[in-house]
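Running low. Invent one:
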Amino acid sequence: MSRTLRVVTMNIHKGLSQFNRRMVIHELREGLRALQPDLVFLQEVQGQNHRHARRFAAWPDEAQHAFLAG
């Protein structure tokens, strides 16, 4: 019996697109869910960011690691 361990590593670039023009944190969460990983390593993760929350209406109210884990 063999078991597979799914490991994902991703640089989320603070949840923003290239040049910080568009919020992509929701797309990242859906992409991670689709991969169904057992273990996830993320780079450039931020806690709550009130400046981005003012700029983007759909910005999560919680830290990025908590939002992505949900």
User: Anything to note?
Assistant: The two ends are 30 Å apart (CA to CA). The first strand starts at residue 7 and ends at 11. The mean pLDDT is 92. The CA atoms of residues 9 and 41 lie 5 Å apart.
